[in-house]
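Design request, tokens follow.
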């Protein structure tokens, strides 16, 4: 990330995703005390997810990998808590320095499209992770623009991730629109499962999350739980399916939020949570109202504050 990258504090769909994930991760405490878990991510110089994970979950030990040499000093200055360890370098260079013998929440929150090095990071975490560990991967799911003919996307994908990593049966038509995100999910899912199977122990992987969201570019977030067989009953007892962001299949939770005024928000809120928000302010579609109803607990409220 560079200093002129988008400000991730004010990206509404990302904000909703972040809050939903954090809410679900509270269930991790039933498997291992969150106070003894470490969080590994890419904090940049805003550390939005780090602040949320620490305050909402009570996770103290945190590791942030910063790839941009130009903003590393800013990251050091803006580090919100002294329990955050900063590692300078690319993720594929520094992940190996992170002790994954500790139960962890690892969020590989990339902004670029999947490539070989990202898949290598996924391999590294899935190969070394202890039980229990949550592994979450976010990637850019925009389709490749290959010219006026819009052909060659399959070739471009194979060049980025390696032909052996392209899922069997993938077609050119699958690599457009949100279908491209579904292909990316399958790539990540197959990679995690293959790496876990190659460990030779009893570690298992269960997908918990599958988000598609857009604040500009189409993005995908997919991930789940790595756990040993002795925790199988405890994992079931977590009741992940009761979480609003539980998505264990190919069917993604898609977050594309309507832009609403304060008055529209107040009108819709007055009919929730027990109603269905069937009434709607003039100019809003039924789909927009239904989307708000689904995500209203996480919908961001922004205000300008001068200090």
């Amino acid at each position: 990330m560079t200093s002129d990258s988008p400000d991730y504090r004010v990206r509404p769909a990302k904000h909703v995703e972040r809050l939903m994930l954090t809410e679900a991760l509270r269930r991790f405490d039933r498997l291992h005390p969150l106070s003894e878990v470490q969080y590994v991510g890419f904090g940049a110089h805003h550390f939005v997810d780090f602040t949320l994970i620490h305050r909402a979950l009570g996770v103290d030990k945190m590791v942030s990998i910063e790839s941009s040499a130009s903003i590393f000093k800013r990251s050091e200055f803006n580090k919100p808590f002294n329990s955050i360890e900063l590692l300078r370098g690319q993720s594929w260079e520094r992940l190996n320095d992170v002790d994954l013998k500790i139960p962890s929440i690892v969020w590989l929150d990339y902004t670029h499209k999947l490539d070989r090095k990202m898949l290598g990071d996924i391999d590294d975490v899935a190969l070394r992770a202890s039980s229990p560990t949550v592994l979450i991967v976010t990637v850019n799911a925009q389709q490749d623009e290959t010219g006026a003919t819009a052909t060659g996307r399959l070739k471009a994908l194979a060049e980025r991730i390696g032909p052996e990593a392209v899922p069997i049966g993938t077609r050119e038509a699958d690599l457009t629109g949100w279908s491209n995100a579904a292909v990316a999910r399958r790539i990540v899912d197959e990679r995690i499962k293959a790496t876990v199977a190659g460990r030779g122990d009893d570690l298992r992987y269960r997908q918990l999350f599958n988000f598609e969201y857009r604040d500009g570019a189409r993005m995908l977030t997919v991930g789940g739980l790595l756990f040993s067989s002795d925790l199988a009953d405890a994992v079931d007892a977590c009741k992940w399916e009761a979480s609003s962001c539980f998505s264990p299949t190919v069917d993604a939770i898609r977050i594309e939020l309507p832009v609403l005024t304060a008055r529209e928000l107040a009108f819709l809120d007055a009919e929730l949570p027990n109603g269905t928000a069937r009434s709607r302010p003039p100019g809003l579609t039924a789909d927009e109202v239904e989307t708000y109803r689904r995500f209203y607990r996480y919908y961001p409220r922004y205000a300008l504050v001068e200090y």
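Comment from the thread starter after seeing the answer: thanks! Residues 258-307 form one domain.
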